[in-house]
Automatic annotation (TrEMBL):
Gene3D superfamilies: 1.50.10.10. Keywords: Signal. This is Uncharacterized protein. The keyword Signal applies. InterPro entries: 6-hairpin_glycosidase_sf, 6hp_glycosidase-like_sf. It comes from the Bacteria.
Length: 718
């Protein structure tokens, strides 16, 4: 491998970003400060989350989690979560995962898929394991939890630059000021509260522990408080300024280490109404201040000894590094009236993605904000969550998540072998253990399979070294082996087909009817091409089987000069039709142009989808990013910004940056694929892509004088 060939990806990555650089650097602190979240009243849609990717806490206007029911019912739940504490309910009947399997015909043979979702075993293994809820922190007044009528004069701010929440309010007319933060890298919460009511002993901090989530509710399950006998909270260590509470539920164990630096004592509540022995109170013994940390630990994650001051300093440093070392956009000079909201959505999404997805295990689609899909990793949409880290200059966070994939390689290889395939088969939905989750849809999803190739390629673009090739070479090769093995060759024609049985992106068509969906075929083609490039970089000859699949993969299905979503499912467009699927647009948008796709056919398809959906194209949720990616690559920046600036109700971003999933607005209330896809589109529009017009800054934005975009530190997509 020559030096110049090694250097080429670096030059490709840096060129558009350098072209977009103004002479003076962006005042990043000013950009971020413009979008601090400020609450002047009680709004359940404006709960605030602090965290670091592996640990997160969501708080209400009190700076703690005092108003649990109001926020759960009306908006964002108040939870304390990490990525590594998982729990399983007892299995007294000895249900086996094998009992979820059923034979599925697959081109002349049978594959055992875990599709028996509604059997006892299917229900058990869908719900288990699930993340373990950690402690809840509330203020009590006169022994009772604060109520909304106790509160007035709210003035609360989440400083995105530091990750610190400052809450000022009146409690029964008395001032209360609370500072809340999470450690920059560890599972540590820091709280400092000051009030005359603390000095009088009337205001205390309540720490209590639920048993588990009520996982019979798949999305936004509430806590189980009413079964105290099923778990244990044991005060195992008490000393001056320190207490340890050992938690155990059905074999899951962790410790909560409480440390306080102000005169205080921890006492256990003893009345049945307060759910003792899982209920504790921290009360001041002198002075008007309670300052404490809560660190969560288990055998593999020891607690670290942190004070409030050191935790606040850690939060400030971690967020300063994040904001200063990655990419940034500044739309303050843009005169288009949509620019302010587009910038807000971008900056707040950048904050939320580090909080929820910057950790060592990729969580479910609601991140660490609240539980959904039983907390399990949904590997198909993870690619949006991870790709934006590369674009915005945080490749380290992309690699942090990819490390989980590296650890799951042996299991995935064994899974593929058990089904009669080569390579590695990635689970569509899994917990920390990597085991596939039963479901009527899960085993049929395939667009997750090329994702590790795509993401490893992004790492290589940022770090084109032998070390990168060595670290991810097996990941890429085994993923490609599966792609080539899964594609079915028609012996009569030599053409390779995908499916049936399949579920494509939209999941709306019977598995027996899904054959050669446009995006999946395009992704198979791109993934195998990239895998061949990796072989070349490693000094290996092209793989003959991969080459044969690339050459003979089925064409992208189309009708009347427009791409279909699925081969054979025709007449998507026409007079009198309303609505249209859009997954075929991912073939040019999320994916770059290849010789598998015709640009003008993609353009006609995009226009047909946009127009058939209504005046604004109906772009909401994660399809906002999807549509903007396609529009930008097609050279239609006016439509790209119109999509990102959509203000219809279903495209609403809450004050703290979260958005509801339109299909499940009361369940998935913090649907992070929206934020991730949005950032992916913004990163491409401001930072470019390989085929973007050369020498043009922010190539995905209109050049009409109304979009003066300043960008720096962004890396282009392929």
């Amino acid at each position: 491998m020559t030096f110049h060939r090694l250097l080429l990806p670096v030059l490709l990555a840096l060129a558009p970003a350098l072209q977009a650089q103004p002479h003076a650097p962006i005042d990043r602190a000013a950009v971020v400060a413009r979008h601090a979240v400020r609450n002047t009243g009680l709004n359940p849609e404006s709960a605030l989350t602090v965290g670091n990717g592996d640990f997160a806490v969501t708080v209400d206007v009190t700076g703690l989690q005092s108003l649990e029911r109001i926020y759960y019912d009306g908006g964002l739940p108040l939870e304390t979560r990490n990525t590594w504490s998982w729990h399983s309910f007892p299995n007294p009947k000895g249900l086996r995962f094998e009992d979820t399997l059923a034979p599925v015909p697959f081109h002349g043979r049978q594959i055992l898929y875990p599709i028996q979702q509604n059997t006892p075993a299917g229900r058990y293994y869908r719900e288990n394991p699930q993340p373990m809820p950690l402690g809840q922190f509330q203020f009590t007044l006169y022994g009772e939890v604060l109520r909304s009528e106790d509160i007035a004069g709210v003035n609360q701010t989440l400083d995105l630059w530091t990750g610190i929440v400052t809450s000022k309010l009146l409690v029964r007319g008395q001032p209360l000021e609370v500072t809340t933060a999470a450690h920059g890298s560890a599972a540590v919460l820091a709280v400092q509260a000051r009030s005359p009511l603390i000095a009088s002993g009337e205001l205390q901090v309540r720490v209590r522990f639920p048993y588990a989530y009520r996982t019979s509710i798949a999305h936004k399950p509430p806590f189980i408080w009413e079964q105290p006998e099923r778990h244990r909270s044991t005060l195992t260590q008490v000393a001056a300024g320190h207490a340890r509470i050992a938690r155990e539920a059905d074999g899951t164990r962790y410790d909560t280490e409480l440390r306080w630096s102000t005169p205080a004592e921890l006492v256990s509540a003893s009345t049945p109404q307060l759910a003792a022995p899982h209920d504790y109170r921290l009360r001041a013994t002198r002075g008007d201040t309670l300052a404490f940390t809560a660190a969560f630990a288990d055998a593999e994650h020891p607690a670290i000894d942190e004070t409030v001051d050191s935790t606040l300093a850690s939060s400030k440093q971690a967020w300063r590094d994040y904001w200063t070392k990655g990419g940034m956009v500044d739309l303050s000079a843009a005169t288009d009236p949509r620019a302010k909201e587009v910038e807000r959505r971008t900056i707040q999404s950048l904050y939320l993605m580090r909080v929820n997805y910057g950790g060592s295990f990729p969580p479910a689609e609601t991140g660490l904000q609240h539980l959904s899909w039983f907390g399990k990793h949904n590997s198909e949409v993870y690619v949006f969550h991870a790709a934006q880290f590369y674009q915005w200059g945080h490749v380290d966070l992309l690699e942090k998540g990819l490390a989980w994939y590296l650890g799951q390689l042996p299991k995935g290889i064994a899974q593929a072998k058990s089904e009669g395939f080569d390579g590695v088969r990635w689970p569509k939905m899994s917990g920390l253990d990597g085991r596939p989750t039963p479901g009527a849809i899960n085993p049929y999803i395939i667009w997750n399979q090329p994702n590790p190739i795509y993401l490893a390629e992004l790492v290589y673009r940022a770090k084109p070294t032998k070390e990168t090739l060595q670290r991810y070479g097996e990941l890429v090769a085994e993923s490609a082996k599966f792609l080539a093995s899964f594609a079915h060759r028609d012996p009569a024609t030599g053409v390779y087909h995908l499916g049936p049985p399949l579920k494509n992106v939209s999941e709306s068509t019977s598995v027996e009817l899904v054959r050669n969906p446009t995006f999946e075929v395009a992704f198979w083609y791109y993934g195998l091409q990239v895998a061949q490039q990796w072989r070349e970089r490693q000094g290996l000859a092209p793989d003959a089987k991969w080459a044969d699949v690339i050459k003979n993969l089925a064409p992208l299905p189309q009708q009347d000069g427009r791409y279909l979503e699925i081969e054979g499912i025709r007449n998507l467009f026409g007079p009198g039709k309303r609505g249209a699927p859009s997954s075929m647009l991912l073939a040019l948008g999320y994916l770059p142009a290849t010789d598998k796709i015709d640009i003008e056919t993609a353009r006609r398809t995009f226009h047909a989808v946009h127009e058939q959906r209504g005046v604004d194209g109906g772009w909401v949720s994660w399809q906002m990013g999807q549509g903007a990616l396609t529009a930008a690559r097609l050279g239609e920046p006016d439509r790209a910004v119109a999509i990102l600036g959509n203000t219809r109700a279903a495209a609403h971003f809450m004050p703290s940056g979260y958005s509801r999933r339109p299909r499940d607005p009361e369940g998935a209330v913090a649907y992070l694929p929206t934020n991730a896809a949005y950032l992916m589109a913004m990163g491409l529009m401001a930072g470019g892509w390989d085929a973007a017009p050369q020498g043009v800054a922010a190539p995905g934005f209109p050049k009409d004088g109304a979009w003066n975009v300043r960008a720096e530190g962004l890396l282009p997509l392929p």
